[in-house]
Specification:
It is a single chain. The chain is of the alpha/beta class and 357 residues long. Helix content is 38%, strand content 16%. The chain has two domains: 5-40 and 263-355, Alpha-Beta Complex (Aspartate Aminotransferase, domain 1), CATH 3.90.1150; 55-250, Type I PLP-dependent aspartate aminotransferase-like (Major domain) (Aspartate Aminotransferase, domain 2). The protein has helices at 5-8, 11-14, 22-25, 60-70, 82-94, 110-117, 135-144, 167-176, 189-192, 232-241, 249-258, 261-286, 309-318, 343-354, and strands at 31-32, 77-80, 100-103, 121-124, 149-155, 181-185, 208-213, 226-230, 291-294, 301-306, 321-322, 324-325, 335-339. The N and C termini lie far apart (59 Å). It binds 4'-deoxy-4'-aminopyridoxal-5'-phosphate. Residues 36, 82-84, 108, 155, 159, 185, 187, 213, 215, 221, 226 line the site of 4'-deoxy-4'-aminopyridoxal-5'-phosphate.
Length: 357
């Protein structure tokens, strides 16, 4: 009898729809503004003489560099293979089979997929009018969920909405649910300004975990380097679960340079430039009759509702411009997310949009 490979796989894997990353969706074009990447890379030095050795599980200088950057101690920092790995690690560390997490769609898609691949459950909180998210929405979800909720995942700024989760709401949540982990995903926080980060709350609230990444403001999506920031006991638990060598040596070398003083200065300049470009794009879009609504993003992207989203998306594809459509997400019909690219790339987007009616 022929081997049925499909039926050999775990049930939850057979039923899984994998994350539709920009790379997986692909698309033919020359301008890719669909993955919230930075438009340009920097130059880095690279030493190949240590490649014969396994790297440290937690490269000392990368941990120290990030701890200095966020003003924490080394034992409050875990380096991971992108913040995506940290999301999975939290679920693997804290959720027994059948327990689970709360999320508040629209939100970053990997929370749900990481839960489902690890046999954890997902309950979706409802947002208020205008997608506003409050502590009460999440608390209600924790109480309604038909399973034990171990963690709540909140992206701030949120993807794709672009808005921050208010700090007073976070404090309420941390106080009201002291037995639940509150995971604040701050992948885009540098664009909103580091004073909007909740890192300063970590010492007061041991149930808080903050996720960070070098993929966005640091322009290093290609090296896959992220961080979990939390109470030393949480970091120690996650360190039990992480792979033995998650951070390749070339990754550590580049991350170290990015986190040196010069690297951080470059990052801050990049953030300022991208934020200015985002606001200029917002102004241009406001004047277009085909635009219905622009969401108040403070990240390196804008979410825009067009009068006819699919038609607009297709017109851009025809010109080789690939954006990210949110057409199939409840409440986001006709919405397209535009990553802030170079001035030339955004001019090109505007030229195509201005010609449509
Ligand atoms: N969180 C959010 C909100 C994101 O949008 C993304 C990537 N698009 C990630 C985390 C994952 O980032 P990383 O490259 O660090 O895995």
């Amino acid at each position: 009898m022929a081997l049925d490979l499909e039926s050999l796989a775990c049930k939850h894997v057979r039923e899984l729809t994998p994350y539709q990353s920009a790379r997986r969706i692909g698309g033919h074009g020359h301008t890719f503004l669909n993955a919230n990447e930075s438009p340009k890379s920097q130059l880095y030095f690279f030493n190949s003489t240590t490649l014969n050795r396994y790297p440290d599980c937690q490269p000392f200088e990368v941990v120290q560099g990030y701890a200095d950057y966020v003003n924490l101690k080394r034992d409050e920092v875990l380096v991971t293979r992108g913040s995506d790995e940290a999301i999975g690690l939290i679920i693997r560390t804290f959720c027994e089979v059948g327990e689970g997490i709360v999320i508040a769609p629209p939100t970053y898609g990997m929370y749900e997929i990481a839960a489902l691949t690890n046999r954890a459950q997902v309950y979706k909180a409802k947002r208020d009018e205008g997608f506003k998210l409050k502590a009460k929405n999440l608390e209600e979800a924790v109480h309604e969920a038909p399973f034990k909720v171990k963690a709540i995942f909140i992206d701030s700024p949120a993807n794709p909405l672009g808005e921050l989760f208010p700090k007073d709401e976070l404090v309420k949540l941390l106080k009201d649910l002291p037995q639940t982990l509150i995971v604040m995903d701050e992948a885009y926080v540098e664009f909103a300004g580091n004073d909007n980060s909740c890192v300063s709350l970590l010492r007061e609230y041991p149930n808080l975990i903050v996720l960070r990444t070098l993929s966005k403001a640091f322009a290093l999506a290609g090296i896959r380097c992220g961080f979990a920031l939390a109470h030393p006991s949480i970091i120690a638990l996650m360190t039990k679960v992480i792979d033995p060598y998650p951070i390749a040596d070339p990754v550590a070398q580049v991350a170290r340079q990015a986190l040196a003083r010069g690297g951080i200065e470059l990052m801050l300049e990049r953030v300022k430039e991208l934020n200015e470009r985002r606001e200029a794009l917002r102004e241009h879009l406001k004047a277009l009759p085909i635009v219905e609504e622009i969401f108040p993003s403070c990240a390196n992207f804008l979410l825009v509702r067009f009068k006819d989203g699919p038609k607009t998306f297709e017109a851009l594809v025809q010109k080789g411009i690939i954006l990210r459509s949110f057409e199939n997400r409840p409440g986001l019909e006709n919405c397209i997310r535009i990553t802030i690219g170079t001035a030339e790339e955004l001019d090109e987007v505007m030229r195509v949009l201005s010609a449509l009616n």
